[in-house]
Amino acid sequence: MTLETLPAQPVIAAERFVLRPPRRSDAGLLALYAGDRRVAEGTRTIPHPLPPGAVEAFIARALSEGRREDVWVLDGAAQGLDEVLGVISLTRMDRGQSQIGYWVAPAFWNTGIASEAVRALVAADPHRARTLFAEVFQDNPVSARVLTNAGFEYLGDAEAYSVARGRVAPTWTYLRKGRAA
Questions:
Q1: What would the pLDDT profile of 49-71 be if each residue is shown by its tens digit?
Q2: Are strands 97-104 and 86-92 parallel, antiparallel or unpaired?
Q3: Strands (E), 5-152
Q4: Cβ(34)–Cβ(40) below 8 Å
Q5: SS3 labels along 40-52
Q6: Is there a contact between 153 and 174 (Cβ–Cβ < 8 Å)?
């Protein structure tokens, strides 16, 4: 048996789950959920179909010491939910800014899981960011509502490339002032 040493990253409590760093043992559920076309097309970077080793490489990057992105798994096991409900991340940008990204497994859509995760991460403020940014594809108004309910304000329209879609798609960009602002 090999013990896994996780890099220093806080575990963040939400009401129905915790946000914790990913583990190698999460690979199966992450592959199952991220392999769903609907999940992949809601992100910029998840390919569809998922190539072999993609999830393992994602976990390795998330656990690396020199990462720019901190990744948390939404783990509901202690509350009788799945061990992996989705993923939320913060990517460090310049000038004390971070960008938040998230996805939730389709089985947990419309349950408030995404809203709870975003609110918990914003409240914990692990990057001590002056400003938080987020973007959602315009064909995902539910995700936009998650952000506005967490205090994000609409900043403007843009475009982003989605690997799963294989094209550029229109986005809405949001911002939220952090406590360090």
A1: 999 999 999 999 999 988 999 99
A2: antiparallel
A3: 12-13, 18-20, 69-75, 86-92, 97-104, 131-137
A4: yes
A5: HHCCCCCCCCCCC
A6: yes
Token pair 């602002």 in the structure block, residue: 181
Fold classification of 12-177 (topology level): Aminopeptidase (3.40.630)
Per-domain boundaries in the chain: 12-177
- List, for residues 151-172, the tens digit of each pLDDT value: 999 999 999 999 999 999 999 9
- How far apart (Å, rounded) are the C-alpha atoms in residues 95 and 30? 32
Spatial separation of the C-alpha atoms in residues 131 and 128, rounded to whole Å: 9
CA–CA dist 109, 176 (Å, integer): 24
Cα–Cα dist 56/33, whole Å: 14
Q: Name the DSSP class of 25.
A: G
